[in-house]
């Protein structure tokens, strides 16, 4: 009897049978590494994707620290979830990590994560954390050169790397109402982490300004919280979200770049200003010219570990430029792995096993989205990109970041309510 003839009442039992079979096959195919425990700090789909890459590669459980995790994390069979009140509270984080040390006293503990504040937390408590965890944190100088938008602009200019023209405004000495750049422009603090500490929410990091009146309004908001740092202003890039992409690279402790992966946005929920939440992406082969520029930047500042470069493709010329960068990993681990390279393997090989792996990069195009592919293709405005995605879908080159055989139960199937919410948000701007 085929599955199409199974009576409706037997479907739950049949799905449980399939889940158990897939789980057994998946576990049997994985090596087990009891010599270390991965610890992931994060609560979004990206954190789940990172934990999944670790489990796929090494078979062991993964400890995850989160305050408001997505259902994929809370319902996972291989994740040891540690719920905390607030990831932004240093005392809470230190207590949670201390609990990990107590639970795994004789095991090496590898600390990674997608939580944006993890790097700053580790920088504040570097000495204490290094006693108990293995993690990658570049030097303060390298972090400043990459994460500070003003410093990064000067770095690119010094290395003769083409990027958007940027104007740096020191709010301790000036508050201009117009710039050397015509409106519309994007304005953001040179150091993003400064803003929440000064009183603004993270959603206010990048502001789209279209007139002198909006500039004056922004300066008044910053004056009210007594912000006196630097702001960087640059022209609003042309094109929609499909012209955005991300280059993720890893540099090991020997100073060798061992991996590179490019992810292009296909569809995203767009925010009030310039922030986007990608809901469909595609892995790509890195642009050799952009990859060479990334090598030059990282070699100059001596950064080791993961670094993410935000890229923009000009619709008229087709040239891709580096817009900004930050130390750390993106939340596209799963599609990068599907595209040919598992970033967690390079991290573990370097920091746990002490191996100097050869260079690998994403080598195939794979679409990743939790949404129906028919919906995604309808919402892509670019006809050539739409046909490309449809072609990849027809030959099976697509993955769902929420579907993992080890976790595939009736409860773990993507929530229809969640998918409906995402689709409604996409409808608003597409």
Secondary structure blueprint with pairings:
Blueprint: H1 11-28, E1 36-41, H2 45-58, E2 62-66, H3 71-74, E3 79-83, H4 90-103, E4 108-113, H5 118-124, H6 126-130, H7 140-147, H8 149-158, E5 167-170, E6 185-189, H9 194-198, E7 207-209, H10 212-224, E8 230-235, E9 244-251, E10 257-270, E11 276-284, H11 288-301, E12 305-313, E13 320-327, H12 333-338, H13 343-351, E14 360-361, E15 367-368, H14 373-379, H15 383-394, E16 398-399, H16 416-429
Parallel strand pairs: 1-2, 1-4, 2-3, 10-14, 15-16
Antiparallel strand pairs: 5-8, 6-7, 6-8, 9-10, 9-12, 10-11, 11-15, 12-13
Question: Can you walk me through this structure?
Answer:
With 430 residues, the chain is an alpha/beta fold. It is 37% helix and 22% strand. It contains 16 helices and 16 strands. The strands form three sheets. Strands 9, 10, 11, 12, 13, 14, 15 and 16 form an eight-stranded mixed β-sheet that branches. β10 and β11 form a beta hairpin. α7 crosses α8 and α14 packs antiparallel against α15. The radius of gyration is 22 Å and the shape is globular. The N terminus is likely disordered.
Task: For the structure shown, list the relevant keywords.
single chain; 430 residues; alpha/beta; eight-stranded mixed sheet; four-stranded parallel sheet; 16 helices; 22% strand; globular; disordered N terminus
């Amino acid at each position: 009897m085929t599955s199409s003839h199974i009576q409706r009442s037997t479907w739950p039992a049949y799905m449980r049978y399939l889940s158990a079979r897939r789980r057994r096959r998946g576990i049997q195919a994985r090596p087990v590494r009891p010599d270390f425990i991965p610890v992931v700090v994060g609560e979004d789909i990206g954190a789940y994707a990172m934990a999944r890459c670790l489990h796929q590669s090494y078979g062991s459980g993964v400890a995850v620290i989160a305050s408001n995790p997505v259902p994929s994390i809370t319902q996972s069979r291989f994740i040891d979830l540690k719920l905390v009140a607030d990831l932004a509270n240093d005392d809470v984080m230190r207590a949670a990590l201390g609990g990990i040390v107590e639970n795994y006293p004789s095991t090496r503990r590898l600390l990674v994560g997608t939580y944006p504040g993890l790097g700053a937390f580790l920088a504040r408590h570097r000495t204490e954390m290094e006693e108990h965890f293995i993690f990658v944190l570049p030097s303060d100088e390298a972090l400043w050169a990459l994460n500070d938008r003003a410093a990064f602009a000067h770095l690119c200019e010094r290395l003769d790397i083409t990027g958007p023209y940027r104007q740096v405004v020191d709010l301790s000495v000036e508050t201009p109402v117009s710039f050397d750049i015509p409106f519309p422009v994007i304005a953001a603090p040179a150091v993003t982490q400064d803003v929440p500490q000064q009183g603004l929410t993270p959603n206010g990091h990048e502001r789209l300004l279209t007139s002198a009146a909006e500039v004056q309004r922004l300066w008044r908001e910053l004056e009210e919280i007594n912000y006196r740092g630097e702001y960087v202003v640059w022209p609003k890039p042309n094109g929609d979200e499909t012209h955005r992409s991300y280059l993720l690279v890893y540099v090991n402790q020997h100073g060798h770049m061992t991996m590179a992966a490019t992810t292009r946005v296909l569809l995203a929920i767009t925010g009030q200003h310039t922030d986007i939440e990608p809901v469909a992406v595609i892995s790509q082969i890195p642009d050799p010219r952009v990859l060479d520029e990334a090598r030059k930047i990282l070699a100059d500042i001596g950064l080791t570990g993961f670094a993410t470069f935000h890229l923009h493709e000009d619709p008229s010329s087709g040239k891709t430029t580096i817009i900004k960068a930050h130390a750390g990993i993106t939340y596209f681990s799963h599609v990068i792995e599907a595209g040919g390279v598992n970033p967690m393997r390079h991290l573990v090989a370097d920091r746990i096993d002490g191996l100097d792996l050869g260079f690998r990069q994403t080598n195939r195009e794979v679409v990743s989205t939790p949404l129906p592919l028919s919906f995604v293709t309808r919402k892509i405005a670019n006809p050539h990109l739409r046909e490309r995605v449809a072609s990849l879908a027809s030959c099976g080159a697509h993955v769902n970041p929420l579907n993992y055989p080890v976790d595939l139960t009736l409860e773990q199937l993507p929530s229809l309510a969640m998918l409906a919410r995402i689709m409604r948000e996409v409808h608003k701007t597409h």
